Fold:
Amino acid sequence: MLNDQDFMRYSRHLMLEDIEEAGQQRLKQAKVLIIGLGGLGSVAAHYLAGAGVGKLLLADGDKVDVTNLHRQPLFDSFSIGYNKAEQAKRRLACINPHIDIEAFEQNLDASNLAVQISHCQLVLDCTDNMASRQAINAACYQAGVPLLVGAAIRFEGQFLALEPAQSHGCYRCLYHPEQSPPMNCANSGVVGPVVGIVGLMQALEAIKYLTGAGNVPFGQLKLFDAKVHQWQSLGLNKDPHCPVCGDQPCN
Structure:
């Protein structure tokens, strides 16, 4: 049940007929895993903590670097050299001390990735490499847990919501594991607010999913071009031969 503190803290949510007390209670009872606490994850985590998601699991084995600070607002100059997940936990606890936050100071491998995902209602993929994205996608589909994927580079952003119970394709249908892109933030750059926009989309759709407010665009690849401020939406069809979500997926 919501207490008096909750009613004050989340009063702006409670005013919304699409959320109200029942939706806020669902947020309080939710458990969400955020993998990657860089530009995407630090923005999404900030808003989910503020929204009152009851249990946040934060996983990242990287340390804060000075080059991160223009797009990763949970960190500051005093965070440099420290683990991102632990620093994010410290900052989020200041933003909302009434939620439970657990930090994993190492990258999740195949075994503990599956275990942690199986205990969650929702996963946010905020990583920056193809191997991690494919592993998270496969684990989410095996566990039947919805997944919100974000990506950004230069002036371009991507957002993809996946629901294993639905008939659309998965991340493996969109990208083959060997399709690892040659460009990344380290060698091609990125405009900080573009990363923030995609991270905000992940947080927004997470709140909608957990509260039941509105429709989450499952199975639609959203492409953002910041230079012309345009969004493009593409449907993601299932590959019947996909080893993750196809007619005869590999287990």
The CA atoms of residues 130 and 180 lie 5 Å apart. Strands lie at 31-35, 55-59, 100-104, 122-125, 147-153, 156-162, 220-225, 230-235. The first strand starts at residue 31 and ends at 35. The chain has a mean pLDDT of 94.
